[in-house]
Amino acid sequence: MREDFRVCSRVCRFALPVMRRSRRAAVRVENTLAKGKLLMLLMWTENLSVGVKTFDDDHKRLIRMINELHGAIEDVDAQGKIGEEEIEIALHRLENYFTTHCLREEETMAKTGYPGLVEHKQEHQMFFATVTEMAQHFRGSRDPKHASEIMQFMYDWLTDHIFVIDRKYTMHMKAKGIT
């Protein structure tokens, strides 16, 4: 189900989901002015907590990195050119940290005998396949539109993944003494 979209500002090049009565209603988005541009920042709230400090810390870091990617996309120089190098660096850091986080989750699930491990791994694999394809489009075209699509996909995927998939392991981890 797609939510309604609204344009957040003339300087914001993408539309942001209006957050009404959805899982994402618990996610705070903040408008911040940086270098004369309006940046939409995804902010951590306790409603995103999965009850495992290590994973919550990973999710906080991923949110910061998605925001950094957004900042790189919005950073246009005086000649109107995007900072391709900054976008590439932010994208590469995100890809690497997502890998680290997913492996950490999967290893913990395996050690604790989490029954949903196979499904969870499949979710991660689908995510990486999609991001890899999207990143190839950006790297081939250097079009900021493709970078914005990656950022929006990561934002949507991460919040949905936390609220739906990750929440399934919360009780299991708590029962195993992992908090």
Structure in words:
With 179 residues, this protein is mostly helical. It has five helices and four strands. It has a two-stranded antiparallel sheet. A two-stranded antiparallel sheet has the order 3-4. The two termini are 32 Å apart. The N terminus is likely disordered.
CATH top level assignment of the domain at 51-175: Mainly Alpha
CATH homologous superfamily heading of the domain at 51-175: Hemerythrin-like
From the alpha-carbon coordinates, what is the Rg to the nearest angstrom? Answer: 17 Å
Distance between the termini: 32 Å
CATH architecture of the domain at 51-175: Up-down Bundle
Mean pLDDT comes to: 78
Strand order of the largest sheet: 1-2
H/E element order: EEEEHHHHH
Q: Specify the helix fraction band.
A: 55-70%
- In the CATH hierarchy, the third-tier topology of the domain at 51-175 is known as Four Helix Bundle (Hemerythrin (Met), subunit A)
Report the principal-axis shape.
elongated
Number of helices: 5
Write out key terms for the chains shown.
179 residues; mainly alpha; Four Helix Bundle (Hemerythrin (Met), subunit A); two-stranded antiparallel ribbon; two-stranded antiparallel sheet; 5 helices
Please summarize what this structure is.
The protein has 179 residues and is mainly alpha-helical. It has helices spanning 53-74, 84-112, 117-141, 144-165, 170-175, and strands spanning 5-7, 15-17, 28-34, 37-43. It has a domain at 51-175: Four Helix Bundle (Hemerythrin (Met), subunit A), CATH 1.20.120.
